[in-house]
Design goal:
The protein is an alpha/beta fold. It has one domain: Class I glutamine amidotransferase (GATase) domain (Rossmann fold, 3-Layer(aba) Sandwich), CATH 3.40.50.880. It contains six helices and 13 strands. It is globular.
């Protein structure tokens, strides 16, 4: 199974690589469309600024290949800013367009809350998310963000609350996104990544 990590300068990419390696999975860095070709699963790690991310992906010619991968219903996992990139736009950079898999926009968390939202929080599930299989509802995940998505056309399977309720995890077929950082979330995060890899391994080629 070829797992491609989108490389665009995200600081958490090495952490995701190490987390996958601990699970016995070797990943490849994909900084151009040819490196992405043939990937069974794609992970878009994310820290930083929405506009900078989308402009860098555009400069690398990666936007169309990522949209094609998702449209082909191949396994995809967006982490933190990688989840936000799935939306049409973000208040963080209103002039920049996201991957627009979902038509809604990413918004700033309320100024009345302590920002950024940084630390360990539980999530509230809706239904039975595949990425959270065999993970206790009491587990905590590590968050670090100031912006968040609030709605995603029927794909929201877990939420969190920090000043307002926002999407913590979304799933639609083989398309997944998490607002928290599984690579920094200890054993619960490792299990989530393992669940994603199992999903990817069972997906039709």
């Amino acid at each position: 199974m070829k797992v491609a990590l989108v490389e665009y300068g995200a600081g958490n990419l090495p952490s995701v690589e190490r987390a996958l390696a601990r699970l016995g999975v070797e990943s490849v860095r994909a900084a151009n469309p040819s490196a992405l070709a043939g990937a069974d699963a794609v992970i878009l790690p994310g820290v930083g600024h929405f506009g900078a991310l989308m402009r860098q992906l555009g400069a690398q010619g990666m936007i169309a290949p990522l949209r094609e991968h998702i449209a082909a219903k191949k396994p995809f996992l967006g982490i933190c800013l990688g989840l936000q990139a799935l939306f049409a736009s973000s208040d963080e950079a209103p002039e920049d367009t996201g991957l627009a898999v979902f038509s809604s926009r990413v918004a700033a968390l309320p100024a009345t809350a302590k920002l950024p939202h940084m630390g360990w929080n539980q999530v509230e599930r809706s239904g039975a998310p595949r990425l959270l299989e065999r993970i206790s509802q009491d587990e905590y995940f590590y968050f670090a963000h100031t912006y968040a998505a609030m709605e995603a056309e029927g794909a929201v399977v877990a939420t969190c609350d920090h000043g307002t309720r926002f999407i913590a995890l979304l799933e639609r077929g083989n398309l997944c996104g998490v607002q928290f950082h599984p690579e920094k979330s200890g054993s619960a995060g490792a299990k989530l990544l393992s669940n994603f890899l199992q999903l990817a391994g069972s997906a039709p080629r």
